[in-house]
Amino acid sequence: MIWLTWRQFRTQAAVVFAALAALAAVLALTGPSLAHDYATGIAACTPHGGCSTFTEQFFNDHQTLYFALVAVVMFVPALIGLFWGAPLITRELEAGTHRLVWNQSITRTRWLAVKLALTGLAAMAAAGLGSLAVTWWSSPIDKAGFSRFPRLSPLLFDARGIAPIGYAAFAFALGVTIGMLIRRTLPAMAITLTAFAVIQIAMPLLIRPHLIAPVRLTTAITATNLNSFLIQSHNNPPVHVTVRVPDPGAWVLSNQTINAAGHVVSGVAVSLDTGPCALAAPPLPPFSPACFAEISQLGYRQQVAYQPTSRFWAFQWYETAIFITLALGLAGFCFWWIRRRLT
């Protein structure tokens, strides 16, 4: 049974692992020079009091390939569910070859177990190797852009660490389950892709922020922590304000202004025509100490909720465990279905 499963699967496996090998080779050749350029630049700018200009330029110079690799890692689990998971059982059901195997002293449970184990482990290995290679290569760029694109942010989190392994296991199991229920390859592939995409979007929006209680901070609005001072309309205050959190690489979940009564408001209601916050040369925002003093006197403060950078691996383990548990649940459902419902 293992030999038969390998014969059916070896072409898809060869294509994916050959592509991963080519990607790893390119990254292995270019990664050391990328790390050297970053280390050299940091060493040169540190004695001069700051490296913000260098890190911004370094990130901008490499961002095209950087985000392309992020997309590759994010798409691997989806492609596994689409091309490995959905057709795995469906093509057997469409062709009727499953009955032939079951009549050769191979039980349904063993038939499904071998298929799920061999292909599922290969799927997890492919996602893990891709993530490992890209995470290693991208490390200098991650450091350069950590304040703009934190590793905990939805964009990067899905393409770093061990989470892609969990995504691949779930996408594969999801594809197998949908294929077994639908019994048609193309509809099963379409539904698998749609369902996986919806779950991947919902996870960072609805579930991930609540896996660990966020850090909540209420702070005064000052010149040192001001992040943005957005004047939506010169004739129509309030002014929308955001502040920086103490951890530059944190994942900021909310950044809200509250008034003296502690209620969340849309912005700071100050006069932009007269007084200390008046715009002397529109549209430049007011940064005078007197303006911030007036904002403080009016009772405005900023309420921020964020996930610190230090929680990256905790979130990785939590999310990987969630998706692997879901994958095991779907696999269990497949075993139940094939024994009791599938004919």
**Rg over C-alpha atoms, rounded to the nearest angstrom:** 26 Å
Largest sheet: 4 strands, antiparallel
- Estimate the helix proportion, in percent: 55-70%
Discrete helix count? 9
Based on secondary structure, the structural category is: alpha+beta
Give the mean pLDDT.
87
- SSE string: HHHHHHHEEEEEHEH
Terminal CA distance: 20 Å
Overall strand count: 6
Shape field: elongated
Structure explained in plain terms:
By secondary structure, the protein is of the alpha+beta class. The protein has nine helices and six strands, in the order αααααααβββββαβα. The strands form two sheets. A four-stranded antiparallel β-sheet has the order 1-6-4-5, with no helix packed on it. The longest helix has 44 residues, at 2-45. It is elongated and about 90 Å long. The two termini are 20 Å apart. The model has no long low-confidence stretch (mean pLDDT 87).
List keywords for this structure.
343 residues, alpha+beta, 4-stranded antiparallel β-sheet, two-stranded antiparallel ribbon
Topology at a glance:
Elements (H helix, E strand, L loop, with lengths): L1 H44 L6 H44 L1 H6 L5 H37 L9 H4 L5 H20 L2 H23 L7 E6 L5 E5 L9 E4 L7 E8 L5 E2 L23 H9 L3 E7 L4 H29 L3
Antiparallel strand pairs: 1-6, 2-3, 4-5, 4-6
